[in-house]
Design goal:
Blueprint lengths: L16 H31 L5 H28 L8 H7 L11 H21 L1 H7 L2 H23 L4
InterPro entries: DPS_DNA-bd (IPR002177), DPS_DNA-bd_CS (IPR023188), Ferritin-like (IPR012347), Ferritin-like_SF (IPR009078), Ferritin_DPS_dom (IPR008331)
Family: Belongs to the Dps family.
GO molecular function, one term: oxidoreductase activity, acting on metal ions
Length: 164
């Protein structure tokens, strides 16, 4: 019986290696922002208090639950393009545009931080569209469109809590 050597197959999906690499890099940045946003939202869920406790506690839980699922979607797209997905705090800190919040802010400040973090994540996703369009990469465009829809809608809903 002949032994088979462990050879990896090349990827031939109609997107050049250079474009796959550029798209994967952008998705790695999106994953870092998304994970940082997830962590911030979960932290605020645990630590929110005040008159809006129940509303915010439940809202934050719905948001971080949705974000958790999105992390897998983004990471799996990176893998489908043939690149490793980052998965360490150190890697996320290097790539993320969202900065860690120190301490436990009051509920209204939590909302403000989350609006900014949602918008930052949307901007990270939007930056990737030109490369995705050139590469004719519809699956990544679909992921980006879905993420933009969620982040922009969530930012609007959070922002609405701050209006009179």
């Amino acid at each position: 019986m002949a032994t088979m050597k462990n050879k990896s197959m090349g990827i031939d999906i109609g997107i050049s290696e250079l474009n796959r690499k550029k798209i994967a890099e952008g998705l790695c940045n999106l994953l870092a922002d998304s994970y940082t946003l997830y962590l911030m939202t979960h932290n605020f869920h645990w630590n929110v208090k005040g008159p809006q406790f129940n509303t915010l506690h439940n809202m934050f839980m719905a948001q971080y639950s949705e974000q958790w699922i999105a992390l897998d979607t983004i990471a799996e797209r990176i893998r489908a393009l043939g690149y490793p997905a980052p998965g360490t705090y150190g890697e996320f800190v290097k790539r993320a545009t969202i900065k860690e919040i120190k301490g436990v802010p009051k509920a209204e400040e939590m909302i403000r931080h989350l609006v900014k973090a949602q918008e930052a994540t949307a901007k990270t996703a939007r930056k990737l569209f030109p490369v995705v369009a050139i590469a004719n990469d519809q699956p990544t465009a679909d992921v980006l469109t879905q993420r933009l829809d969620i982040h922009e809608k969530t930012a609007w809903m959070l922002r609405s809590l701050l209006e009179d």
